[in-house]
């Protein structure tokens, strides 16, 4: 992609005063060529002569280029040849819009050959060269209307190759006609493009001067006879509105109340909440009035219950609940348990007896399965490739990426450095564009160029792997490209040349890069506003590296080896250099994320170990007894039992990992760090509940009875909670994201195995431990025993309640029984649920890249700097499948955006969308190989598609062999080799300006091999080498072709999501309208596709999980009533958790969706044990609610809440932010919310509208033998 030189018209190079020529019709101000400048530009003669009549041949030649010039002329054949040669550089830029091209050519035709030249051109400066007076400066008079209409006809014309306006090349980015004409008329320095003399365009003149400013016909770009495309002329009347409806930036419904404005949803929730609150208050008042008419026995059951409970405490009666509720029991008719409950009771009773009789057998058999599964760990592997972690293999984005990579080419790998100045307090960061920093960049560039990496016994340099558009030089994006990466050129021109190039990068050949492409300063600078590039506070250096499709994992081995050496170089050598200059440096390579994920996989191993140690210490403390004598502590402690329980959890985790490793499923970072903690927290809960249940059994019963009765008491609720958790993970396994799906699979199996080990191996361990305690043996040293065993005196806690249990019975329960407290609890918790609904709508989809990386990763600063400094967005490709280029097809006109293309063509619509970047997220019109190919073939672009006499391809005149290349200077001098070359086609050869199928097929390879240059900027080599798939194109079908544009700068996760949604909506609309398959592609789409439907996924998974748990609860409890209450409480917990996420700024993504679904399963533990205890209790609702809190409240608090809290707090110190945000914060919120709902809200609800009790049928069985009959 070479920069064109500006029009160099025949004129002079130094100024001297010239005489005023009297304007007159038929007279010239300049005529003939008198000399040449030192750079070869020809100079006109300052010759006020009468216009000359040309011969017929010359006249026809002039007419072919300048149809408005008739009769006499003010130019010679040599002058006309020079004009023809110079305007051909501008033709490729403008030929797509015939009206603009015609107006542009007329401007210079009139200046060079008009017979009335003296009327609007005045030679103001001449210079004598070789005794001849040559023109050195002129005034060119045009009317204001002429200048404005000329500019308006060309201002929107695109130069698709670089996704920019042609005005950026031909007018220096002019915004008005005056700026454009001033740019055209400036006098060029030697060897620079431009006019050899100064042209001053003027509109001011006096009537007495005789000047008649040029005011010839200007064709509007919308003129049907010279129609431009809608992309080049959006103001044309034929250009209808966009096919894609513009997105409304504020589509939400709102309600105004005075000066306040609220969303309709928020307002509706407030109204519904107030209505429910009033209804609840009315119900309470009616209930209270009805209660006053009842008997005193019915109105004061709780008080009687309290009194009798207190009086019976010293008697240690295990059945005091029956006594205190005896009066009320006549009004509450218990129902019998379901078949499932009956079966579970029978099963757990028999199972408990069997385990108590054969603990060693049960322990050995139960441990055998996880130990065998651990063998699969021999195939254990960790997946760290981001695409395989966060992208569903069958997703649309993955399929489109595979199609793009296989048919076109993978997007290049990016290695990047960002150098920036630091802002002092209270002031903006200073400019980085100074001499010292430029010299630092040259030192850095030399180190990068000299860097060598080792790969398979060979060395790899940047030049071996870098992207080379023209097969010669690397496409390095750096401010140093304005000096062609040559420090000598910088020494010659200095920093001022860089500042000059910031404004003229498209129009100055001296600003071209080493790979002959203009370097947009917005891609290499950062921290500036508008176009104030000199204020930039950051340099952005990018090294594009060739990428290959991965099949074996070794295709990019050389690139990866160099990238790792590059990162080491930056850390060890470049970073100290930058810091010494008081600058900051952030950096990245294509393989950096994967390498950092690999490093992170072992970064939190200590955190996991600490978590297990803390959990072990806590479980040992909470399972043990607090005896009256300190010596008894050695017997009553449960350290060995706690340690054994932790080992069982580890076995379940390792068994799950072994099973999936054996079947070829790779583990992930999240699995290795979260599941051990998760299963430990869940497992400890059930361990505490089991041990506490055994302790609650009467000491008079033998061990078999205590074990079996404990399992009958808590086995169903443990089963229900465990199955709810397993089902929650199983539901999450349908999530398409591999990382979360695999996590859910591993977790589901681990939790299930942990449950099995708890009701088998751990129960067996309880048997051994209680036997040890009964025998007075010391914990951890069972071979030693204390002479006077405290077991009998201090043994079971069946009749001596712990402090926490007494608190639940004597303080917590009675407080919740007050009507005012109940009203406050219901009001607050329902209000929180409604508030959480409103807050949850504020949840933003996304997953910040920094979160999944270690907090001390060098990429943290890099991503921050990208968001802070980058001024361009990611490339966006619109890919067209099966483009039919045959003459019979309408596809060409449905895609292209030059003249004769459909007004609603794909490229015209893209250009139209770029006019509304705030909603379309499209920054520029698309680069179109099709447009450039059609222009390149056009006879109008006479310097492009040319052929020798023998029919072979003839390059432009400024390329070898048409010119002779000087290897030292790099210049190409004229040659006669291509003097006989002709255009590929005449106008008559084309069908309405379009090539035939054969012409298209034959010349497309020529176009893709054609180098762009000043004489023909439309060559396709480099710019479009990977834009289309030529496999099988001879059939008339191009399987894949891409049209490149750019997204606007995307700084937030919502920007990425919305930009992808907008691009897909647009392409879908275009596909439907044009009956062609079109899809958008950008490198980040595969990672962000999940967020397009994350809300739908979240709601579906949560609803399925809630529904599944409801069914399980009903099967276990046989009570729709109880199941509905559990369902409502679980829904409120999830809603509150989503509200907390919104407050903490936690985004909605696959990880948080899995956590939300998983939270339902974990929240079941806070509800099901209380509800189960409530249902098997006796008495009225108040009494049973108190009983449930007294029996299970302490276990829920100490065995569930505190165990999870202890484990969660450890995650706060994880090095990876993903664990801190998505596991510490979310799990901590879940534990607190679950605790509040389980021990405050749920008991109140049960006391108000709980289900009737379920009596337990007596189970016929033989009297079990004493615990001493068998100890094996």
UniProtKB/TrEMBL annotation:
<dbReference type="InterPro" id="IPR004765">
    <property type="entry name" value="NPC1-like"/>
</dbReference>
<feature type="transmembrane region" description="Helical">
    <location>
        <begin position="1226"/>
        <end position="1249"/>
    </location>
</feature>
<keyword id="KW-0812">Transmembrane</keyword>
<feature type="domain" description="SSD">
    <location>
        <begin position="604"/>
        <end position="768"/>
    </location>
</feature>
<feature type="transmembrane region" description="Helical">
    <location>
        <begin position="816"/>
        <end position="839"/>
    </location>
</feature>
<dbReference type="InterPro" id="IPR053958">
    <property type="entry name" value="HMGCR/SNAP/NPC1-like_SSD"/>
</dbReference>
<feature type="region of interest" description="Disordered">
    <location>
        <begin position="297"/>
        <end position="329"/>
    </location>
</feature>
<keyword id="KW-0153">Cholesterol metabolism</keyword>
<keyword id="KW-1207">Sterol metabolism</keyword>
<dbReference type="Pfam" id="PF22314">
    <property type="entry name" value="NPC1_MLD"/>
</dbReference>
<dbReference type="InterPro" id="IPR032190">
    <property type="entry name" value="NPC1_N"/>
</dbReference>
<protein>
    <recommendedName>
        <fullName>SSD domain-containing protein</fullName>
    </recommendedName>
</protein>
<dbReference type="GO" id="GO:0015918">
    <property type="term" value="P:sterol transport"/>
</dbReference>
<keyword id="KW-0753">Steroid metabolism</keyword>
<feature type="transmembrane region" description="Helical">
    <location>
        <begin position="1152"/>
        <end position="1176"/>
    </location>
</feature>
<keyword id="KW-0325">Glycoprotein</keyword>
<dbReference type="GO" id="GO:0016020">
    <property type="term" value="C:membrane"/>
</dbReference>
<dbReference type="InterPro" id="IPR053956">
    <property type="entry name" value="NPC1_MLD"/>
</dbReference>
<feature type="transmembrane region" description="Helical">
    <location>
        <begin position="1098"/>
        <end position="1117"/>
    </location>
</feature>
<feature type="transmembrane region" description="Helical">
    <location>
        <begin position="359"/>
        <end position="378"/>
    </location>
</feature>
<keyword id="KW-0472">Membrane</keyword>
<keyword id="KW-0813">Transport</keyword>
<feature type="transmembrane region" description="Helical">
    <location>
        <begin position="1124"/>
        <end position="1146"/>
    </location>
</feature>
<dbReference type="GO" id="GO:0005319">
    <property type="term" value="F:lipid transporter activity"/>
</dbReference>
<feature type="transmembrane region" description="Helical">
    <location>
        <begin position="714"/>
        <end position="734"/>
    </location>
</feature>
<dbReference type="Pfam" id="PF12349">
    <property type="entry name" value="Sterol-sensing"/>
</dbReference>
<keyword id="KW-0443">Lipid metabolism</keyword>
<keyword id="KW-0445">Lipid transport</keyword>
<feature type="transmembrane region" description="Helical">
    <location>
        <begin position="669"/>
        <end position="694"/>
    </location>
</feature>
<feature type="transmembrane region" description="Helical">
    <location>
        <begin position="1188"/>
        <end position="1214"/>
    </location>
</feature>
<feature type="transmembrane region" description="Helical">
    <location>
        <begin position="639"/>
        <end position="663"/>
    </location>
</feature>
<feature type="transmembrane region" description="Helical">
    <location>
        <begin position="605"/>
        <end position="623"/>
    </location>
</feature>
<dbReference type="GO" id="GO:0008203">
    <property type="term" value="P:cholesterol metabolic process"/>
</dbReference>
<dbReference type="InterPro" id="IPR000731">
    <property type="entry name" value="SSD"/>
</dbReference>
<feature type="transmembrane region" description="Helical">
    <location>
        <begin position="746"/>
        <end position="768"/>
    </location>
</feature>
<dbReference type="GO" id="GO:0012505">
    <property type="term" value="C:endomembrane system"/>
</dbReference>
<keyword id="KW-1133">Transmembrane helix</keyword>
<comment type="similarity">
    <text>Belongs to the patched family.</text>
</comment>
<dbReference type="Pfam" id="PF16414">
    <property type="entry name" value="NPC1_N"/>
</dbReference>
<dbReference type="GO" id="GO:0032934">
    <property type="term" value="F:sterol binding"/>
</dbReference>
<feature type="transmembrane region" description="Helical">
    <location>
        <begin position="267"/>
        <end position="286"/>
    </location>
</feature>
<keyword id="KW-0732">Signal</keyword>
């Amino acid at each position: 992609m070479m920069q064109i030189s500006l029009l160099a018209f025949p004129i002079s190079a130094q100024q001297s005063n010239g005489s005023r020529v009297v304007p007159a019709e038929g007279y010239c101000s300049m005529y003939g060529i008198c000399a040449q400048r030192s750079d070869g530009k020809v100079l006109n003669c300052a010759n006020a002569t009468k216009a000359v009549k040309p011969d017929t041949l010359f006249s026809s030649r002039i007419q072919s280029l300048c149809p408005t010039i008739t009769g006499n002329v003010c130019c010679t054949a040599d002058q006309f040849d020079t004009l023809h040669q110079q305007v051909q550089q501008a033709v490729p830029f403008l030929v797509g819009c015939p009206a603009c091209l015609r107006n542009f050519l007329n401007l210079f035709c009139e200046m060079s050959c008009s017979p009335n030249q003296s009327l609007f051109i005045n030679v103001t400066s001449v210079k004598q060269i070789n005794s001849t007076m040559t023109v050195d400066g002129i005034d060119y008079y045009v009317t204001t209307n002429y200048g404005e209409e000329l500019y308006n006809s060309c201002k929107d014309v695109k130069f698709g190759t670089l996704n920019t306006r042609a005005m950026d090349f031909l007018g220096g980015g002019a915004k008005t006609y005056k700026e454009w004409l001033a740019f055209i008329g400036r006098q060029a320095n030697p060897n620079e493009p431009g006019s050899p003399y100064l042209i001053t365009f003027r509109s001011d003149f006096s009537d007495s001067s005789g000047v008649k400013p040029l005011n010839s016909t200007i064709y509007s770009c919308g003129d049907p006879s010279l129609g431009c495309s809608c992309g080049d002329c959006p103001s044309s009347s034929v250009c209808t509105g966009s096919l894609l409806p513009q997105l409304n930036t504020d589509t939400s419904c709102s309600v105004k109340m005075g000066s306040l404005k609220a969303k309709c949803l928020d307002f509706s929730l407030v109204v519904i909440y107030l209505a429910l609150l009033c209804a609840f208050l009315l119900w309470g008042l009616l209930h209270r009035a009805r209660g006053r008419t009842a008997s005193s026995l019915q109105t004061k059951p709780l008080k009687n219950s309290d009194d009798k409970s207190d009086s019976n405490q010293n008697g240690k009666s295990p059945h005091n609940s029956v006594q205190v509720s005896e009066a009320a029991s006549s009004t509450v008719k218990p129902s019998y348990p379901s078949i499932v409950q009956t079966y579970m009771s029978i099963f757990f009773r028999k199972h408990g007896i069997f385990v108590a009789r054969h603990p060693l057998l049960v322990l050995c058999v139960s441990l055998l399965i996880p130990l065998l599964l651990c063998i699969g760990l021999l195939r254990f592997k960790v997946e760290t490739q981001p695409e395989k972690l966060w992208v569903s293999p069958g997703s649309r984005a993955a399929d489109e990426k595979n199609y793009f990579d296989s048919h076109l080419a993978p997007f290049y790998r990016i290695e990047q450095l960002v150098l920036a100045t630091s802002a002092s307090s209270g002031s903006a960061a200073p400019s980085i564009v100074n001499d010292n920093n430029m010299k630092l960049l040259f030192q850095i560039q030399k180190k990068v160029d000299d860097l060598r990496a080792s790969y398979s016994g060979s060395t790899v340099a940047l030049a071996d792997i870098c992207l080379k558009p023209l097969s010669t030089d690397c496409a390095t994006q750096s401010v140093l490209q304005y000096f062609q990466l040559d420090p000598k050129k910088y020494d010659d021109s200095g920093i001022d040349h860089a500042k000059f190039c910031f404004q003229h990068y498209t129009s100055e050949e001296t600003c071209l890069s080493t790979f002959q492409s203009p370097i947009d300063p917005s891609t290499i600078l950062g921290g500036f506003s508008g176009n104030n590039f000199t204020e930039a506070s950051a340099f952005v250096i990018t090294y594009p590296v060739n990428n290959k499709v991965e099949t074996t994992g070794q295709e990019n081995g050389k690139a990866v080896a160099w990238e790792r050496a590059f990162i080491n170089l930056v850390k060890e050598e470049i970073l100290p250099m930058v810091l010494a200059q008081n600058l900051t440096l952030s950096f990245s390579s294509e393989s950096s994320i994967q390498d950092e994920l690999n490093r992170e996989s072992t970064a939190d191993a200590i955190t996991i170990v600490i978590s297990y140690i803390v959990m072990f210490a806590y479980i040992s403390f909470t399972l043990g007894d607090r005896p009256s004598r300190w010596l008894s502590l050695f017997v009553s402690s449960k350290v060995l039992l706690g340690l054994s329980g932790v080992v069982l959890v580890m076995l379940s985790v390792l068994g799950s990992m072994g099973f999936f490793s054996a079947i070829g499923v790779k583990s992930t970072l999240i699995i290795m760090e979260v599941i051990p903690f998760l299963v430990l927290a869940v497992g400890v809960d059930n361990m505490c509940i089991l041990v506490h249940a055994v302790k609650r059994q009467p000491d008079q019963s033998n061990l078999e009875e205590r074990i079996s009765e404990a399992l009958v008491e808590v086995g169903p609720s443990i089963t229900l909670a465990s199955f709810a958790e397993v089902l929650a993970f199983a539901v999450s396994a349908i999530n398409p994201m591999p990382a979360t799906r695999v996590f859910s699979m591993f977790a589901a199996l681990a939790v299930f195995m942990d449950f099995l080990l708890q009701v088998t191996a751990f129960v067996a361990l309880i048997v051994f431990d209680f036997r040890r305690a009964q025998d007075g043996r010391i914990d951890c040293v069972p071979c030693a025993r204390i002479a006077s065993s405290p077991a009998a005196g201090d043994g079971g806690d069946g009749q001596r309640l712990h402090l926490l249990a007494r608190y639940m019975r004597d303080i917590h329960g009675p407080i919740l029984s007050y009507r005012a407290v109940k009203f406050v609890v219901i009001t607050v918790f329902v209000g929180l649920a409604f508030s959480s609904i409103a807050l949850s709508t504020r949840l933003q989809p996304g997953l910040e890249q920094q979160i999944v990386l270690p907090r001390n990763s060098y990429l943290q600063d890099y991503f921050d700097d990208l968001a802070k400094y980058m001024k361009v967005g990611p490339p966006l490709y619109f890919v067209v499948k099966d483009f039919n280029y045959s003459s019979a097809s309408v596809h060409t006109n449905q895609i292209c955006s030059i003249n004769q293309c459909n007004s609603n063509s794909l490229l015209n619509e893209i250009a139209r969308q770029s006019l509304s970047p705030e909603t379309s997220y499209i920054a520029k019109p698309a680069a179109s190989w099709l447009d450039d190919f059609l222009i390149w073939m056009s006879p109008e672009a006479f310097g492009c598609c040319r052929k020798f006499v023998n029919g072979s391809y003839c390059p432009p005149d400024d390329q070898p062999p048409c010119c002779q290349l000087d290897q030292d200077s790099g210049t190409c001098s004229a040659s006669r080799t291509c003097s006989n070359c002709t255009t590929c086609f005449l106008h008559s050869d084309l069908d309405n300006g379009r090539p035939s199928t054969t012409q298209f097929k034959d010349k497309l390879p020529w176009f893709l091999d054609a180098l762009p240059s000043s004489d023909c900027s439309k060559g396709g080599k480099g710019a479009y080498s990977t834009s289309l798939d030529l496999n099988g194109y001879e059939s008339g079908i191009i399987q894949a072709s891409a049209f490149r544009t750019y997204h606007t700068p995307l700084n937030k996760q919502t920007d990425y999501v919305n930009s992808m949604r907008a691009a897909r909506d647009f392409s879908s609309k275009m596909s439907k309208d044009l009956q062609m398959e079109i899809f958008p592609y950008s490198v980040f789409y595969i990672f962000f596709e999940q967020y397009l439907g994350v809300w739908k996924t979240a709601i579906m998974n949560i609803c399925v999980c809630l529904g599944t748990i409801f069914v399980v609860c009903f099967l276990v409890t046989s009570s729709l009533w109880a199941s509905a209450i559990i369902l409502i409480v679980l829904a409120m917990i999830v809603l509150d958790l989503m509200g907390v996420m919104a407050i903490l700024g936690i985004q909605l993504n696959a990880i948080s969706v899995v956590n939300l679904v998983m939270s339902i399963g974990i929240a079941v533990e806070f509800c099901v044990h209380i509800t189960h205890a409530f249902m098997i209790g006796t008495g009225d609702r108040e009494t049973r609610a108190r009983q449930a809190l007294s029996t299970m409240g302490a276990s829920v608090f100490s065995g569930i809440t505190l165990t999870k809290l202890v484990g969660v707090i450890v995650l706060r110190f994880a090095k990876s932010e993903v664990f801190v945000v998505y596991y510490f914060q979310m799990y901590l919120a879940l534990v607190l919310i679950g605790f509040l709902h389980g021990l405050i809200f749920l008991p109140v609800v049960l006391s108000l509208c709980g289900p009737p009790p379920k009596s337990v049928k007596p189970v016929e069985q033989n009297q079990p033998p004493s615990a001493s009959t068998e100890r094996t």
